[in-house]
Amino acid sequence: RDAFAVAAERVRAGTLSRDDAHHLFDDLFRQATPVPDRSLNGFLAALARATSSTACITDGPALALALFNRVCREEAGPQVAVPTVCTYNILMDCCCRARRPVLGLALFGCILRTGLKIEQITANTLLKCLCYAKRTDEAVNVLLHRMSELGCVPNAISYSIVLKGLCEDSMSQRALDLLQMMAKEGGGCSPDVVAYSTVIHGFFKEGETGKACNLFHEMMQQGVEPDVWTYNSVVDALCKARAMDKAELVLRQMVADGAQPNAVTYTCMINGYATSGRLKEAAKMFREMKSRGLIPNIFTCNSLMTCLCKHGRSKEAAEFFYSMTAKGHKPDIVSYRILLHGYATEGCFPDMIDVFNSMENNGIAADCHVFNILIDAYAKRGMMDEAMLISSKMQERRVNPDIVTYSSIIAGLSRLGRLTEAMEKFNQMIALGVQPDKVVYHALIRGFCIDGDLAKAKQLVSEMMNRGIPRPNISFFSSLIKSLCQEGRVMDAHDIFDLVIDMGERPDDILFNSLIDGYCLVRKMDKALKVLDVMESVGVEPDVITYNTLVNGYCRNGRIDDGLTLFREMPRKRIKPDTISYCVIMDGLFRSGRTVSGREMFHEMIESGTTVSISTYNIILGGLCRNNCADEAIALFQKLGSLNVKFSIAIVNTMINAMYRVGRREEAKELFAGISASGLVPNESTYGVMIMNLLKDGAVEDANNVFSSMDKSGIVPSSRLLNDIIRMLLEKGEIAKAGNYLSKVDGKSISLEASTTSLMLSLFSREGKYREDMKLLPAKYQFFDGFC
């Protein structure tokens, strides 16, 4: 056995290094015995198939070309036989594998010049070189015309190569035309499963899902059975399009047709369900995959972890992560990023840091993306000292911060008003060559606007424009003004409004409406009207939102007549009142005790054809109950119910309370009992209304049972509700029962209100009515004895 045959075996075994290959050729040039072309070709072919996964040789095709080049350059002469067409075929294939198709075409020219006979494999490799060189038009021409001139007949492989080339160049329609030509000509070159699968995959890549599915069905009608690769292509595309029901049908059809799903199939399905937020189905697919004896890969596991984290179930994701590790799956850096991001989103910072430490202990170095997750998590929660500590660790590990790192830090500092530090980081990033983007500038401009330093904000706007970054648009300033107005800082908001005009921007209706709403919130209606005048003077037409805001402002400030005047002005301004307009004015009328006018407005709304919403019914029924018209409200509620009007739980709560108020207790209990049957879910207010009314009636046990039902349903009682219950029980002398509820007060999420504490002090004082019953209270409340 010659040295080249042994070397070829070593290549396949992964034990031959690049240096060994060159030493072999050094020996070749020194020896006297010629090397047969078959031995050389076998060795070159082995190198051609050596991939990056091979232990010693990372790029076999490129090495094969380099060695052959040595043969040609050093003129080995009689030591190496003249290259045959087989040699050239191997080398052309190496050119394709090494992504050097132009060199492959040059080698084909050598074949022509030497007069060697063109073989079928030579022609197919030529097609491959042309396609890799993005010369698909020439490839089609060679396939359909030139191959016959070269003495070759195109076969299924020839067509598949060109079909793949067309699809990779986003010319799937031309590929389909070629496929149909194959089918029409028939013979020994009819389209096979590879040809169909290639074009189907091409259409999916181009987003032509309909064409891909049609071709898939046509393929089966032609009697060509799809293989696993075909099915996987269809399943993957449908999953990416979030068409999970269709993907599930294809999977079931695949199993029925005897094509066994593999790990790729299930990974596509799991990832599809995961990205669609359908955790239950993703978990089911994962179990089905394992039941078939298929081993999930790291991508499959990461998809499931991502889905769990998106659903706020990072703890479960962590359990899955550690079980995956225990079973021999080595998590990659993506796995750690998913878990870190999940914990970061949920604010579980100790767990987040534990995962970070575990990652480094397992030999996976944190990259910039990982550090950015940690920094952003702390920055968004205002924990800037912790964020800066992570930033320092990042520098210690010699990981360079990027634009995302600086964006998170600068935004976090700006939100906290630490603008000097924010600017220091801004200057630092520029000095390090990291160019600021729109996000960074927006964070700083917003920070300086909120801080009141509009001159600096304006300077930053000019600076970002000089850098070619578009200045903040009107939406940015509208959001800023709205935020300030909600905080009651209307004058600051107005200053920013002036800044927008000073910058040469034309305020839009949203910006004006935000400022008007701000003045309405601080009860400065005259200034709100002045903004309206400015709005009209600059040619911005007030819309229905403008008037709804002003009418609501008047109503909330008790100026219902002014609100009505403005409401009546709307049609004259060619602004048709909408559902919100009527709801605002009706709510104002009912709150001011003008029940008749409220009813009349409701009838006007119906006659105008305006849509009546659930909120409308809530306002009408609540308004009637508030104005001692509970019987009328109950009658309307029952009438609407008979018309199959769907109510919200808020309306039901209002009606239960109204029924108790007028002594219609049994109806109230029936309404409460039928909530679930009507498709609604009781909330804390529902249970609170029932409990307080039952306690008022002295039905303490029934009230306790309702509270237990609330507890079982997973609803956590608010501090306010517990205080109401405790006070009611104490006033009724139910000291032991009150003690049971007092034991639920933890001083954190639930604490005693001042009125509850005051009542307890008066009841358990020396002259108090229930001093002797103090021992019935939980031990931690015995301290009242000391005060008394």
TrEMBL record:
Write down what this protein is called: PROP1-like PPR domain-containing protein
List the GO cellular component terms.
mitochondrion
* InterPro entries, per database record: PPR_rpt (IPR002885), PROP1-like_PPR_dom (IPR033443), TPR-like_helical_dom_sf (IPR011990)
**Which Pfam family, any one of them, does this sequence belong to?**
PPR_long
Gene Ontology molecular function: mRNA binding
Mind telling me which PANTHER family this protein's record contains? ATPASE EXPRESSION PROTEIN 3, PENTATRICOPEPTIDE REPEAT-CONTAINING PROTEIN
What's the source species for this entry? Aegilops tauschii subsp. strangulata
Where the record annotates domain PROP1-like PPR, the positions are: 626-769
